[in-house]
Specification:
Pfam families: LRRNT_2, Pkinase. InterPro entries: Kinase-like_dom_sf, LRR_dom_sf, LRR_N_plant-typ, PRK1-6/SRF4-like, Prot_kinase_dom, Protein_kinase_ATP_BS. Residues 191-214 are annotated as: Disordered. The chain is of the alpha/beta class. The protein is built from 19 helices and 24 strands. Strands 3-4-6-9-11-14 form a six-stranded mixed beta sheet. α5 runs antiparallel to α6 (219-277) and α17 (516-538) runs antiparallel to α18 (542-558). The longest helix has 59 residues, at 219-277. The chain is globular, with a radius of gyration of 29 Å. The chain binds adenosine-5'-triphosphate. Residues 312-318, 320, 332, 365, 381-384, 388, 390, 435, 439-440, 442, 452-453, 466, 495-496 line the site of adenosine-5'-triphosphate (ATP).
């Protein structure tokens, strides 16, 4: 697929990279071939770039170059700082195969001038898009959201089938499913037959009718009139009630259908990606029982089993090895414990892992593949050579590696971004990490944090085993915890150390499953530990005092006893950004 000595998609990708010369996420975008398998976030099919997945990668600049990729089918650049306009997209100017366009939570402006017959997903919420929706034509749209922009004007035609939430928070949008536009409302108000009906009900209501006729004194007439009036009134009332019920029924059905459409479309997007990554990729099918995900296409079960391995540790969920494959690639293989992950929940586990395998974020360790056969469950992750937060905080022999305040802040911010990405990933029900603790927070070569082992413990049979060892620690209120920070640090086991101390109190009573709220609690405990450990180890200078206090406050909120009182990770990020 090389034309004139260069890959056809290279210029577009390099123009995008030019906006972000120092972006960590694009550091792998080097060399002549974007389809070599080493370019982060790039998905190819038959030698051409068909997908770009760069959610939450701290990227700036314009999105236009990526939309110039002539074969692109899916572009996901949510949660970045992209600016400029979205170019006009139609079958002549953009890839006619573009089916999924996800640009939410950037700073894009201009109008939504899109006319694409194949588009199934358009997620453009929380940007600065202006103008109306009249130049948006995508008849096959199944997942759609433009909320939180500066759009105005009437929602019409096909778009009206999407729920209110798809349009909320705009400057001045109106029309179904939002309230009617002013012009339409007035017209209906003046001539409307429903208004006429209302008037006629009032005129013909039994009480009015009977009051009118009672002065005539004729009993039979009164009762006949009253009866007639009652009859007419009832008939009108019944008709109106029926009409209201029908309208309500149609409205509710449409609402439910739109909601279902939207979530189905999100799942469709995921399934399609999955197919492309697994079924669609011939190499992956030859992986010998290993289900592989983006970036793991070259993995083979056979070569994993032959690899030279080194034990990294053994936790409640299983044993972890560093494996060096024949071609020199280093991966981490987690062999799940049979006791914690019995074969009986195999299908649910499969479904879950396929979802987790789609997570691609700068602050989340990528799952490259997994195997689930004959009771053996292996998970293959990227290897991060810089160790875990656990090793920084509680290294063997007490020789904790030093982390200055800015490194600690950056780690906490990274973990918060990673968790927020996991919690907001389009899945039904929402994803939960379920085992947030320092040994599952790895540090990359640039000192950034990467959250590992997302969702694995959600499928463990006995999370109590992970929690119980020092349950008292989990129940410590944050202030007590603060006071004990230094002692706790040295008392913590050097490797792993289970989830005790980080698990939310509601999980201790048994029966409860980890939730996004319990993830927030665990994050809060990690945060308090990182902050107080710094104070205990290095003290602080004046400039840090305010930030430290800000962080401690966030930690307190996250570790609220009642799950419903804890903030969401998005709120945590917003609070952090106030002083960082
Ligand atoms: N992708 C990775 N790259 C580098 N080191 C890793 C990676 N994944 C895990 N580790 C390290 O390997 C060690 C063992 O990990 P493991 O997950 O088995 O232990 P744990 O987190 O204590 O236990 P568990 O998750 O089962 O409760 C930990 O120190 C962890 O930080």
């Amino acid at each position: 697929e090389l034309a004139n000595g260069g890959h056809q998609d290279l210029p577009a990708l390099l123009s995008f990279k030019a906006y972000n010369p120092n972006a960590t996420a694009l550091a792998t975008w080097t060399g002549p071939n974007p389809c070599s398998g080493t370019w982060f976030g790039i998905r190819c099919y038959r030698g051409r770039v068909v997908g770009v997945f760069l959610d939450g990668a701290s990227l700036a600049g314009a999105v236009a170059p990526l939309l110039g990729l002539t074969q692109i089918r899916a572009l996901a650049v949510r949660n970045n700082s992209l600016t400029g306009v979205l170019p006009a997209l139609d079958n002549a100017t953009a890839s006619p195969w573009l089916r999924h366009l996800l640009v939410s939570r950037n700073q894009l402006t201009g109008s939504l001038n899109i006319s694409l017959g194949a588009l199934l997903t358009l997620r453009a919420e929380h940007n600065g898009f202006r103008g109306g929706l009249e130049s948006l034509r995508a008849p096959l749209l199944r997942s759609f959201n433009v909320s939180g922009n500066r759009l105005a004007g009437e929602i019409s035609g096909d778009l009206s089938r999407f729920p209110t939430s798809a349009f909320a928070g705009n400057l001045a949008l109106c029309g179904t499913p939002l309230p009617r536009c002013a012009r339409g409302y007035n017209a209906l108000g003046s001539d409307s037959s429903s208004n006429a009906t209302t008037t006629s009900i009032a005129a013909q209501s039994p009480s009015t009718a009977s009051a009118n006729v009672s002065g005539n004194g004729g009993f039979s007439k009164i009762s006949l009139t009253a009866l007639m009036a009652t009859g007419i009134g009832n008939a009108v009332l019944i008709t109106v009630s029926l009409a209201i019920s029908v309208v309500m029924f149609i409205y509710m059905r449409r609402k439910l259908r739109s909601a279902k459409d939207a979530s189905d479309a999100a799942l469709y997007f995921e399934e399609e990606e999955d197919k492309r990554r697994n079924g669609g990729d011939e190499k992956c099918q030859k992986s010998g029982g290993l289900v592989c995900f983006e970036g793991g296409e070259e993995l083979r079960l056979e070569s994993l089993l032959k690899a030279s391995a080194e034990v990294l540790g053994k936790g409640v969920s299983g044993s972890t090895y560093k494996a060096v494959l024949e071609d020199g690639v280093v991966v981490v293989v987690k062999r799940l414990s049979v006791l914690q992950f019995p074969a009986s929940r195999s299908k649910a586990f499969d479904r879950h892992m396929r979802l987790v395998g789609r997570l691609r974020h700068h602050h989340v360790v990528s799952l490259r593949g997994y195997c689930n056969s004959n009771g053996e469950r292996l998970l293959v992750y990227d290897f991060l050579p810089n160790g875990s937060l656990q090793s920084f905080l509680h290294a063997n022999g007490g020789g904790a590696r030093s982390l200055d305040w800015s490194a600690r802040k950056s780690i906490l911010l990274g973990v918060a971004q990673g968790l927020n990405y996991i919690h907001t990933f389009p899945a039904r029900p929402g994803l939960v990490h379920a085992n947030v603790k320092p040994s599952n927070i790895l540090v990359d070569e640039r000192g950034g944090a990467c959250v590992s082992e997302c969702g694995v413990m959600r499928y463990a049979t006995n999370i109590q085993q992970a929690i119980l060892p020092t349950q008292a620690a989990a129940r410590c209120p944050p202030d007590l915890f603060l006071g004990r920070a230094a002692a706790t640090s040295s008392a913590m086991p050097a490797s792993g150390g289970g989830w005790h101390g980080y698990a939310a109190p509601e999980l201790a009573s048994g029966g409860a499953r980890a939730t996004q709220e319990s993830d927030v609690y665990s994050f809060g405990m990690v945060l308090l530990e990182v902050v107080t450990d710094h104070k205990a180890a290095d003290g602080e200078d004046g400039g840090e005092g305010e930030e430290t206090m800000g962080m401690v406050k966030i930690g307190m909120l996250c570790t609220a006893e009642a799950p419903e009182e804890r903030p969401t990770m998005a709120q945590v990020l917003a609070m952090m950004s106030e002083f960082m």
